[in-house]
Amino acid sequence: MIRKDQGIVIGLIAGFYDVQTANDIVRTRARGVFRKNKLKPTVGDHVKIQIDDQGTNYLVEVLPRKNLIGRPALANVNHVLLVMSAVQPDFSLQLLDRFLTFFSWQGVAVSIYLSKSDLLSSSKLNKIHEDLLYYNAIGYRIYYSQEEVANNLIHEIAAENIWTLAGQSGAGKSTLINSLQSDVKQETGAISNSLNRGKHTTRTVNLFPLGKGFLADTPGFSAIDLTPIKVKELCDYFIEFRKASSNCKFRGCQHLNEPSCEVKRLVEAGEIKKSRYDDYLLIRKEIENGRLPEYLK
C-alpha cells in the first residue's frame, strides 16, 4: 500500500532523510529527480513524501523555501538564538554586529544569549552588560543564563517554527543544547588557546522538538561572509539606521557625508552606538573590496 504525506526534514543520515510528519518520523530516500534538477533536500525543508508499507519510502517534493542559511545548510529558519561568549573566546561587539547584519540580511529574527558569564570578573561583565543594554533597546531580546533560555524558549517557539543556534566556535552552543535536551549528547570541545577560538565539534544539523516547534544545532561560525550584500542596501540591515533614515534629508542616504543625515546626528548625540556606526563603515569597505578582511581569514 502506497500513501502520501507531508512533513519537515529533521535529519540526514548516510543518504537517508528523516521526515517528521504529524504522527511519526519516517526515514526516506530522495528520488533521483532531485539530482537531475541539482536540488538537494536539506534539514528544515517542508517536503512531500511517498510511504510504501512494503518497501522504501521516498521524498518526492521539496516545497518552496523561506531561506537557506549556514554550512551545512538549514532551511526555513524563523529565528536565531545567537550565542556570544563572555570569555574564551572573548566577547566582541564587532563580531556581534557582523552576525546581526548577516541575519538581518537573511530576514531572520535574532535573540542573543551571553554564555560563560560566570567565568568573567564582575567589572568586565558589567561592561558587557552595559553594551548589551543598547542592543536590547533597539529590539534584540537578551538572555544572560542557561536557566533563562530554558525557561523561555519552550514558550517562545511557535508551532512548526524553526529556531537555530548560531555563534562563534567554542561559545557554548552544544553545551546549551545539552541542557535543553537531556537525551541529546552533543560532543563538546576545548578551546584552542593559541587561536582564542573553539574547535568545531558539531558537524551535522539536526532538528530537535522544543516547544511547539524545533531547535537546530549547527556548526559554529568563526567568520561570516558579508560581501554578497549590495553596498547600497547595507544600511537597511542595521535596524536602528533603517528606522532613523526616514528623517534623513535625502532618500537613499548612505549616512556618510550627506547633509542633514539623521543617523550621523544620532551617532554624534550618543543615541546610536558609535561602535555600531564604525562597524557599518568597516563592513561597507569589506563589501566594496569584495573580500573578507585579513583578521577574519
UniProtKB/TrEMBL annotation:
Sorted alphabetically, the keyword list is: Cytoplasm, GTP-binding, Hydrolase, Metal-binding, Nucleotide-binding, Ribosome biogenesis, RNA-binding, rRNA-binding, Zinc
Grouped into one coarse class, the protein's main location is cytoplasm
Range of residues in the leader sequence: none
Boundaries of every CP-type G domain copy: 66-224
Q: Which domain of life is it from?
A: Bacteria
* Pfam families hit by this protein: RsgA_GTPase, RsgA_N
Q: How is the cofactor bound?
A: Binds 1 zinc ion per subunit.
Described by its record, this protein's role is as follows:
One of several proteins that assist in the late maturation steps of the functional core of the 30S ribosomal subunit. Helps release RbfA from mature subunits. May play a role in the assembly of ribosomal proteins into the subunit. Circularly permuted GTPase that catalyzes slow GTP hydrolysis, GTPase activity is stimulated by the 30S ribosomal subunit.
Q: Which NCBIfam families match?
A: ribosome small subunit-dependent GTPase A
Quaternary form?
Monomer. Associates with 30S ribosomal subunit, binds 16S rRNA.
Provide the protein name: Small ribosomal subunit biogenesis GTPase RsgA
Organism classification, top ranks?
Answer: Bacteria, Bacillati, Bacillota, Bacilli, Lactobacillales
